[in-house]
């Protein structure tokens, strides 16, 4: 049975379970459940604190985990990212009150509060900066007002939390994070574990279904080359003859974000009956 760690709380938890459900796996109904078995798929899901997941996976007791890239790096655990999942996107940044520091180089000698000591210590060492790091469990934005630190290093998504605390970012993001699938470093999920391969293919299928739509249209045969240049598909578009001589029907996957522009461009070159439909699942 494949053993998978899933975040039980926080920003990663809901979207991770939703994605697993979309991929056809049984998910818990009650947030108090800690372990559930999906006998049909021969998978066991362990609902764990997101911060602990890399540690469990690196121990080899669990085969695969879903966590945040920032949490994986912060843990220092012997685990590696194998598939980015496109949700819980954020940056990790330094921030302070305006006027405290012009750039990262000014952080020397300062006190930095964070819940991600591993990332911050690693970054300071890399930059050759000597600063004091104070560990706090959360709500670190308040640490400056309360005098516990002069600088914070925290997750920033919209920037609302920083603005509300009267803080501004310093320098470039230390890292870009999102939810990721991880395994023990070097674990052979590729050939050894058919269930793990199936799991990764299913999640990849959900990602593709979320990112692409199917586009169908009719165009004149002489415009076909121009049309398929707009809709090359993932491999190659399907082209079928129409009963009306001189016309063809084309079907191709297109990125959902570009669908409206592509429809306009197809219309402009004479394509008609242009339709897009959602993809619910796929295996490429
Ligand atoms: N506002 C946010 N937007 C996107 N991702 C976020 C956000 N806040 C936290 N994360 C991501 O969630 C993961 C941290 O999960 P964790 O459960 O520890 O914290 P949380 O989501 O802040 O929840 P809580 O603090 O309520 O427990 C990290 O990968 C982090 O990048
Ligand atoms: O840039 P924003 O969109 O404001 O999002 C970032 C905030 O979200 C998270 O906090 P959370 O609400 O989880 O509280 P926490 O600090 O206790 O983790 C994170 O720690 C930041 O504070
Ligand atoms: Mg939090």
UniProtKB/TrEMBL annotation:
Residue ranges annotated for the Histidine biosynthesis HisG C-terminal domain, each copy included: 209-280
Domain ATP phosphoribosyltransferase catalytic: 49-204
Highest rank taxon of the organism: Bacteria
Subcellular location as annotated: Cytoplasm
Swiss-Prot/TrEMBL keywords: Amino-acid biosynthesis, ATP-binding, Cytoplasm, Glycosyltransferase, Histidine biosynthesis, Magnesium, Metal-binding, Nucleotide-binding, Transferase
Listed cofactors: Mg(2+)
Signal peptide: none
GO cellular component term of the entry, any: cytoplasm
InterPro entries recorded: ATP-PRT_HisG_long, ATP_PRibTrfase_cat, ATP_PRibTrfase_HisG, HisG_C, N-reg_PII-like_a/b, N-reg_PII/ATP_PRibTrfase_C
GO biological process, one term: L-histidine biosynthetic process
GO molecular function, one term: ATP phosphoribosyltransferase activity
Family that this chain belongs to: Belongs to the ATP phosphoribosyltransferase family. Long subfamily.
Name the UniProt record assigns to this protein: ATP phosphoribosyltransferase
Taxonomic source organism: Streptomyces sulfonofaciens
Taxonomic classification: Bacteria, Bacillati, Actinomycetota, Actinomycetes, Kitasatosporales
Chain's gene name: hisG
